[in-house]
Amino acid sequence: MPSYTAPVKDMTFILNEVLNIGQYANLPGYSDATPDLVSAILEEGAKLCENELAPLNHSGDQEGCTRHADGSVTTPKGFKAAYDLLTESGWTSLTADPKYGGQGLPHVLGFCVEEMMVSSNMAFTMYPGLSAGARAAIEIDGTDAQKEIYMHKMVAGDWTGTMNLTEPHCGTDLGLLRTKAEPNGDGSYAITGTKIFISAGEHDLAENIIHLVLARLPDAPKGVKGISLFIVPKFNINDDGTLGDRNNLICGSIEEKMGIHANSTCVMNYDGAKGFLLGEPHKGLRSMFIMMNAARIGVSVQGYGQSEVAYQNAVAYANDRIQGRALSGPKAPDKAADPIIVHPDVRRMLMNARAFNEAARASALWCAMLIDLSHDAETEEERQWADDIVSLLTPVMKGVFTDRGYEYATSSQQVFGGHGYITEHGMDQFVRDARITQIYEGANGIQALDLVGRKLAAHGGRAIQAFFKLVGSFLSANKDNEKMADFVGPLSAALADLQASTMWLMQNGMANPDNAGAGSTAYMHMMGHVLLGYQWAQMAKISLDQLDAGTSDPTFYENKLITGRHYMKRRLPETKAQRAELEAGADNLMALDAANF
Ligand SMILES: Cc1cc2nc3c(=O)[nH]c(=O)nc-3n(C[C@H](O)[C@H](O)[C@H](O)COP(=O)(O)OP(=O)(O)OC[C@H]3O[C@@H](n4cnc5c(N)ncnc54)[C@H](O)[C@@H]3O)c2cc1C
Predict the structure, then answer these.
(1) Is-contact 62 188, C-beta < 8 A?
(2) Tally of CB atoms within 10 A around 571
(3) Most buried residue, 360, 371, 377, 404, by most Cβ within 10 Å?
(4) What does each C-alpha distance from 576 to 185, 400, 497, 529 come to in angstroms?
(5) Is 34 strand, coil or helix?
(6) How far apart are the C-alpha atoms of 254 and 121, rounded to whole Å?
(7) Do β-strands 265-278 and 189-199 pair in parallel, antiparallel, or remain unpaired?
């Protein structure tokens, strides 16, 4: 059976040394996040995930969810008790506004706990995860009365939330959606239509489920400009806040799927269900994007979270499994063979995953801190800068961290050889669970298009210029530091590739939009490399300084340098090939007649 140990030490390193969150004590939430409190939360979160959630991961996958004839759904054994523990211990309210019963702690801390939860049990974590997205939309776009009705219950976890976009004939292209919303004449609407693939659409964990549903009003213009968002509770809510009768909506079936079996992915049928407009008419997509942006960063955490747990188990296996002898001569002569960790190719797989996981974690926590700064930094300039960087990097993290997360979950499975393919080892589950992260919340191809089509050009390229300046300033400040040469050289080269590719896109993407579409995934991965390389360069600088200062824990910092050098030498040069792919343009890609495929 696989095991999981929360990377508390690495998280603490990032929070305290890389991000230095102590410098933001003037911001709401950060003043409460003293080193002692942070450490207590990480330790308690680790216990919850290691001892309660991880043991339910494999059994939940095997058992799956069960739908009953009345449309109700039972989650796997142990899930309800674990969910109760989660809510009773306040984990669902960690970063929520104290106004609604939340603890108001920084997002950066919430992301640490989120990673532990997805690594230990991704299917379980999606139940509270979807709620957090739904909550965000109500908090931003809801009326005071709506906030009063829903926020406290959702923050407490008594009620969960869902997002209902997808219909059988429309996923990416939401302009095609058909679900109707007709005024009831009393301020409410009758919602009718079928939504598919709705995560956590029905379950037995909470008293009520608050569905956020995209639908069209009778006078709606065609396309995406005619979509509105509605709050549609499973149980109607009485004026005094108690639960009333059952709304006209039902889970029609649970999808049979490749992974995340313990999360109920539902077909939801709305048959004149009572709903309430959230935000302005025809502006539903904008509200939904509030949810989607937060959710996309959450999915990026799922990507490296699956890679992390798969890596941990691969390391344990590689130290235990004996096969063959080291090329340089026996390393365990007393045994019939050496452990497979002696083989360079096995190490290649482990080091690739490790180097990605640590830098992805540093990137995501940095972005979580920028989310806090985008709301609460002192000056408008700082808030705008933080918001620009988060907006730019959201599709990059979603696309790259989930593509890589799946890749490294798979290569960690490869470390097990044939045993990785056998269910009892649990490695196949990490691969199957990781796979969905590349598809939902906008397939990764769509993230790449969002990056090149919208994010690069937004505000005259302000965000990409800010990102270039940030990385460029770090490189300039460290260019004469010989000890940093292993980091500065490769990062400078990767940044140059990215800058040249950005110019190429500006010159060739406008003239022929297919050029932008054809190179978008390569470009997104290039930016992912620069982002991860930048994190490694910063972590290297801190590690070198610590070693120079005679740290009491040299192994930790030396290992950081070894892992970072691996990334710089063996992964970062991929930007060369990605740039060549981008610059190949669209002509040949579009040449084959569709009939000849
Ligand atoms: C397990 C699971 C859980 C899910 N949970 C939810 C949920 O909770 N709520 C919800 O609303 N939805 C949910 N979804 C739906 C998910 O978000 C969609 O499947 C996803 O957005 C893709 O839509 P689609 O499946 O219709 O694919 P399509 O839109 O048909 O896309 C097919 C392929 O074509 C590509 N493509 C499409 N259009 C373009 C374009 N213009 N340019 C380039 N490439 C393009 C896509 O990248 C993709 O590779 C879930 C799906 C699954 C499988």
Answers:
(1) no
(2) 21
(3) 360
(4) 61, 17, 7, 11
(5) coil
(6) 20
(7) antiparallel
Question: How much of the chain, in percent, has pLDDT values that exceed 70?
Answer: 100
Q: How far apart are CA 247 and CA 364, in angstroms?
A: 39
Q: Is 288-452 CATH 3.90.226.10?
A: no
H-assigned helices in 416-484 = 427-437, 444-450, 458-478
Mutation probe of ligand 1 site: the residue of 176, 179, 197, 589 with most atoms within 8 A of C-beta: 197
Inform me whether the pLDDT recorded for 288 exceeds 90: no
Buried b (16+ CB within 10 A) or exposed e, 290-327: bbbbbbbbbbbbbbbbbbbbbbbbbbebbeebeeebbe
**Residues sharing a CB contact under 8 Å with residue 114, sequence separation 6 or more, in sequence order:** 125, 129, 298, 301, 305
Residues 529, 576 contacting (CB under 8 angstroms)? no
Pocket lining: 283 vs ligand 1, CB cutoff 6 Å:
no
Do 208 and 235 touch, CB atoms closer than 8 A?
yes
Residue 48 carries which DSSP code?
A: I
> Is the distance from CB of 240 to CB of 153 less than 8 angstroms?
no
Give the DSSP letter of residue 203.
Answer: -
Find the range with the poorest average confidence among 138-147, 279-288, 484-493, 554-563: 279-288
Structure tokens at 492: 């400078």
Banded pLDDT at 121 (limits 50, 70, 90): very high
Q: Are 266 and 73 in contact (CB under 8 A)?
A: yes
Looking at this protein, which amino acid is placed at residue 217?
Answer: L
pLDDT tens across 2-28, in order?
999 999 999 999 999 999 999 998 888
Q: Which atom of ligand 1 is nearest to the CA of 263?
A: 1
Distance CA 23, CA 25 (A): 6
Domain boundaries, the chain: 288-452, 462-591
Helices (H) and strands (E) in the chain, counts: 17, 11
Task: Report how far residue 267's alpha carbon sits from residue 142's, in angstroms, rounded to the nearest whole number.
Answer: 26
Q: Give the mutation target among 440, 515, 520 for probing the ligand 1 site: most ligand atoms within 8 A of CB.
A: 440
* 215: β partners: 228
| Ligand 1, atom 7: closest residue by C-alpha | 198
Percentage of the chain beyond pLDDT 90 is: 94
Helices 554-566 and 485-509 cross at an angle (nearest 10°) of: 40
